[in-house]
TrEMBL record:
The active site is at 309 (o-(5'-phospho-dna)-tyrosine intermediate). It catalyses: ATP-independent breakage of single-stranded DNA, followed by passage and rejoining. Residues 153-593 form the Topo IA-type catalytic domain. It comes from the Bacteria. This is DNA topoisomerase 3. The record marks 61, 168, 176, 311 as: Interaction with DNA. GO terms for biological process: DNA recombination; DNA repair; DNA topological change. SMART domains: TOP1Ac, TOP1Bc, TOPRIM. One of its GO terms (molecular function) is magnesium ion binding. Releases the supercoiling and torsional tension of DNA, which is introduced during the DNA replication and transcription, by transiently cleaving and rejoining one strand of the DNA duplex. Introduces a single-strand break via transesterification at a target site in duplex DNA. The scissile phosphodiester is attacked by the catalytic tyrosine of the enzyme, resulting in the formation of a DNA-(5'-phosphotyrosyl)-enzyme intermediate and the expulsion of a 3'-OH DNA strand. The free DNA strand then undergoes passage around the unbroken strand, thus removing DNA supercoils. Mg(2+) binds at residues 9, 105. Keywords: DNA-binding, Isomerase, Magnesium, Metal-binding, Topoisomerase.
Length: 733
C-alpha cells in the first residue's frame, strides 16, 4: 500500500500532525500510520556549503583570496543534525512513498527548510504543500483537505534561495574583508549594518545635542488651570524676558472667555497584532526582548495551539476567517473577558474593513486566538501576559469606539491667550477591556493637560488667582530600546535622511529585514558586542561605532535591504528573475571587497584589560553582554572567552533582588545586585542550599510540563541565518 510522507519543521509539530493523521507507530525519527508517515527536520538540516568546501585556500582568511564567488552554490548536510537528515533520505527512498507533503512553516524560510532537504536527497516525485495559520486539529484537518500543488510555491522557493545565496555572497565576503583588513572580529551584512547605523546615528545626535531653555506659563483659577499659548498654539516660549513680561502682565488679572468648543469625538481600537507590533508592546509593557516574545509566541502557537501563526506582518484577517470568529470568542470567554465575549456575540459580530481586508493580508493573517480552549494553569506567567495582550486586541476591534465630549475653553487675559481642555467620557467602548485607560490621542499643544472643567459661557469673566512660569530644557532624541528599534527597522524612512522615492520604497517594502528575522538581527548585534544595554536603552559600543566608520557607505543604508526585499517579493510572485538578482549581488560583493581593500582607516581596541589570555597569551578585551560582562581574546584565531559577571534569575535570600554571578570555575561567587545589600556567597555552597530548598517547594506536575514544553520550543533549531553566522564564528576562532 502506497503512503504519503509528511515533512514538518520541528518534532513537536510533527507529533501534532501525526496525532491528527492517525499515525500511531513511533519509530523515533518518524511516526507511521496506514496512510501517512510523518517526519521532521530540526529547523535547517541542509545549508549552503562553507567556503573551504569549494577550495582549500579558503580555510585560512586572506585578503588576496577575496572575493569568494563559487560558480555554482553547493548544499551540505549540517553535521550536528545529520542523523535526522539521513533518516529522511531513507524514507524518501522507500518504494511505498508515492508523494511528499511539505508541512514546514508556511513562509519563505519554511519553504527553504523543506526544499533544500528534498533537493539534497534528489527527490523528484509528486509534491503538495500544507499552508495553515494555526496548529489546531481542525486547522490541520482542513489544511489536508485543501492541500496545494507544490508547483504553486516554486517561485517562493526561488526567492528563498536567492536570499540565502545573496546573504552568503555579500555577508561572508564583507565579513572576511573587514576581519582581514583590520585584524579584528568584525562582521557586516545587509540587515545588521543599517540597523547598527541607526543606533550609532542616534547616539551621535544625542552626543551633539545642545539643550535649549524654554518657559511655560500656567494660570491658576478657581478649580481649574489655564495654559498660555501663542498664535500658533505653542505653549513654549524661548525668550525669558518675553515670558516674564507675560507673567507680570496677567498675574491676578481678570480674563474673558472668548470661545467654548464642545466636540463629540470617537477613538477606534488599534489594529490587530502582527509580530512586530506585539514585540513592541511586550518590550514596552513587560520588558521582554524581541527574541523572547517570539519564543513565547512559538510556544503558544505550537505547544498550546491557542494563538495563530506568529511570524506575520499582516494586521488584518481575511473574509474566510469571519465565520470562525464566534468560536474563537467562545474559546477566550473566561474570567474578565466573558462579559465582553457575550456582549459581542449577543449584538452580532460586525466584520468591517478596519480588521477584515483580504487585500491587506500577505502570507498569513494577523495574530488572533484559535478556537482551542486554553487551560490557564498550563500557561507560564510570560505566556499568560502575551496571550492576554492578543485577547484584548482581538476583542477591542469588535467592540464599539471609545466616545467622549472634548471641551476647549479659550480665555483672553490682557491680550494674552490662555487655553483649558477637558474631556467627558460618554462610552468607554473598547477601552473597557483594558485594566487601565489607554489614551492614544496626541495632544496638539505641548504641556496642555486635560482636566475636569466647570460649565463656561462665552463672554464669562474668569479671575486669575496666580500665574507662574516654569523653566524647561529641550531634550535630545531618546535612545532606542528594543521596542522602538523594531519600529525603526519597520519604518527606517522616519529615522534616516532619504529622498521621497527612497522613502516610498522603504514604506512599501516594510523596512529593514522581515518580521521573522528582526529579533535575530538584534540578538546578533548583542552577540557581536556592537551594542549593549543600559537599563532598557540600547547604546553602541566602541566596536560598533568604529564598524560603522569602516564599512562601505551604501551598506549602511536601509535602502539596500529594502530594495533586496522588494526584488525578492517580485521573484516570489514570478515577476522578476532570480538569476539576475544573484548576478547583481555577486557584482555588489566584488565592489564591497574592493572598497574595504582600498580603505586607509584603522580599528583600535579601546577595551583592552590587564588580563592575558590563558591560551595564546595576548591581552583580553572586556565586553558587555545583555546579562553581564565577559573577557574575550583579541586574537580572532584564538577565540577564547570567559565570563566575569552575569546577572542571574536566582534571588537574594535577604532582599529578593537578582543575584550576580562573578568569576569563573571554582572561584565563582554570588553577589546581590541590590545597592544596599551586602549578601555574597560562594556559588558552590549557595547552589547546594538552593537545591535542597527547591525539593520542598516543588509543584512537580505543572513545572515538569512547563519545562518540557519550553525546552522543546527553545531547543537549538537549525536556522539558515544562524548557520551563516556559525561560518563567521568558526572562521573567527
Amino acid at each position: 500500500m502506497s503512503k504519503i510522507l509528511v515533512l514538518a519543521e520541528k518534532p513537536s509539530v510533527g507529533r501534532d500532525l501525526a496525532k491528527v493523521l492517525k499515525c500511531n507507530s513511533n519509530k523515533r525519527s518518524y511516526i507511521e500510520g496506514n496512510k501517512y508517515i510523518v517526519t521532521w527536520a530540526l529547523g535547517h538540516l541542509v545549508t549552503l556549503a562553507s567556503p573551504e568546501s569549494y577550495d582549500d585556500k579558503y580555510k585560512s582568511w586572506n585578503m588576496e583570496n577575496l572575493p569568494m564567488l563559487p560558480n555554482k552554490m553547493k548544499l551540505e548536510v549540517i553535521k550536528k543534525s545529520s542523523k535526522q537528515f539521513y533518516e529522511i533520505k531513507k524514507l524518501l527512498g522507500r518504494n511505498d512513498i508515492e508523494s511528499v507533503v511539505i508541512a514546514t512553516d508556511a513562509g519563505r524560510e519554511g519553504e527553504l527548510v523543506a526544499r533544500w532537504i528534498l533537493d539534497k536527497c534528489h527527490y523528484r516525485g509528486s509534491l503538495s504543500r500544507l499552508w495553515i495559520s494555526s496548529q489546531t486539529d481542525k486547522a490541520i484537518l482542513d489544511g489536508f483537505k485543501n492541500l496545494k500543488n507544490g508547483k504553486e510555491y516554486e517561485n517562493l522557493y526561488k526567492a528563498a534561495t536567492a536570499r540565502a545565496e545573496a546573504d552568503w555572497v555579500v555577508g561572508l565576503n564583507v565579513t572576511r574583508a573587514l576581519t582581514c583588513r583590520y585584524n579584528a572580529s568584525l562582521s557586516a551584512g545587509r540587515v545588521q549594518t543599517p540597523t547598527l547605523a541607526m543606533i550609532v546615528n542616534r547616539e551621535n545626535e544625542i552626543k551633539h545635542f545642545k539643550p535649549k531653555a524654554y518657559y511655560t506659563i500656567n494660570g491658576k483659577c478657581n478649580g481649574f488651570n489655564l495654559t498660555h499659548v501663542d498664535s500658533k498654539n505653542n505653549s513654549r516660549i524661548f525668550d525669558v524676558k518675553v515670558a516674564e513680561s507675560i507673567v507680570a502682565k496677567t498675574n491676578k488679572e481678570e480674563g474673558t472667555v472668548v470661545e467654548v468648543k464642545e466636540s463629540a469625538k470617537k477613538n477606534y481600537a488599534p489594529m490587530l497584532y502582527d509580530l512586530t507590533e506585539l514585540q513592541r508592546d511586550c518590550n514596552k509593557i513587560f520588558g521582554y526582548s524581541a527574541k523572547q516574545t517570539l519564543s513565547i509566541m512559538q510556544r503558544l502557537y505550537e505547544n498550546h495551539k491557542i494563538l495563530t501563526y506568529p511570524r506575520t506582518d499582516s494586521r488584518h484577517i481575511t473574509t474566510d476567517i469571519v465565520p470562525t470568529l464566534k468560536d474563537r470568542l467562545k474559546s477566550v470567554s473566561f474570567g474578565n473577558y466573558r462579559m465582553f465575549c457575550d456582549d459581542i456575540i449577543r449584538k452580532g459580530i460586525k466584520a468591517n474593513k478596519s480588521f477584515v481586508d483580504n487585500n491587506r493580508v500577505s502570507d498569513h493573517h494577523a495574530i488572533i486566538p484559535t478556537e482551542e480552549r486554553v487551560i490557564i494553569s498550563h500557561l507560564s506567567s510570560e505566556e499568560r501576559n502575551v496571550y492576554d495582550l492578543v485577547i484584548k486586541r482581538f476583542l477591542s476591534v469588535m467592540l464599539p469606539p471609545f466616545e467622549y465630549i472634548q471641551t476647549t475653553v479659550d480665555v483672553n487675559v490682557k491680550g494674552e491667550r490662555f487655553l483649558a481642555k477637558g474631556k467627558v467620557v460618554q462610552s468607554k467602548g473598547w477601552k473597557a477591556v483594558y485594566d487601565r485607560e489607554m489614551d492614544d490621542d496626541k495632544e496638539d499643544i505641548d504641556d496642555l493637560r486635560e482636566q475636569m472643567l466647570p460649565k463656561f459661557e462665552k463672554g464669562e469673566k474668569v479671575k486669575i488667582l496666580s500665574v507662574d512660569m516654569k523653566k524647561g530644557e529641550t531634550k535630545p532624541p531618546a535612545r532606542f530600546n528594543e521596542g522602538t528599534l523594531l519600529s525603526a527597522m519597520e519604518n527606517p524612512q522616519k529615522y534616516v535622511h532619504v529622498d521621497k522615492n527612497a522613502a516610498k520604497t522603504l514604506g512599501e517594502t516594510g523596512g529593514i529585514g522581515t518580521v521573522a528575522t528582526r529579533a535575530d538581527i538584534i540578538e546578533k548585534l548583542y552577540n557581536m558586542f556592537y551594542i549593549e544595554k543600559k537599563g532598557k536603552d540600547i547604546i553602541p559600543t566602541s566596536k560598533g561605532i568604529q564598524l560603522i566608520d569602516l564599512v562601505p557607505e551604501d551598506l549602511k543604508s536601509p535602502l539596500l535591504t529594502a530594495q533586496w526585499e522588494s526584488d525578492l517579493e517580485l521573484i516570489s510572485k514570478g515577476k522578476a528573475n532570480d538569476k539576475k538578482f544573484i548576478t547583481s549581488m555577486r557584482d555588489y560583493a566584488t565592489k564591497l571587497v574592493g572598497d574595504v581593500k582600498s580603505s586607509s582607516d584603522k580599528f583600535v581596541h579601546d577595551n583592552v584589560t590587564g588580563s592575558k589570555c590563558p591560551k595564546c597569551g595576548k591581552y583580553m578585551l572586556e565586553v558587555k553582554t545583555k546579562t553581564g560582562v565577559m573577557n574575550v581574546c583579541q586574537d580572532r584565531e584564538c577565540g577564547h572567552r570567559e565570563s566575569i559577571s552575569r546577572t542571574t534569575n536566582a534571588r537574594c535570600p535577604e532582599c529578593k533582588k537578582k543575584l550576580i554571578l562573578k568569576g569563573h570555575g571554582e572561584g565563582q561567587i554570588y553577589v546581590c545586585s541590590g545597592a544596599n545589600c551586602n549578601f555574597r556567597e560562594k556559588a558552590s555552597s549557595f547552589n547546594k542550599r538552593f537545591d535542597k530548598k527547591s525539593d520542598k517547594v516543588n509543584k512537580r506536575d505543572v513545572n515538569n510540563y512547563m519545562k518540557k514544553m519550553k525546552k522543546e520550543a527553545d531547543a537549538p533549531i537549525n536556522d539558515a541565518f544562524a548557520g551563516l553566522m556559525d561560518l563567521f564564528k568558526e572562521s573567527n576562532k
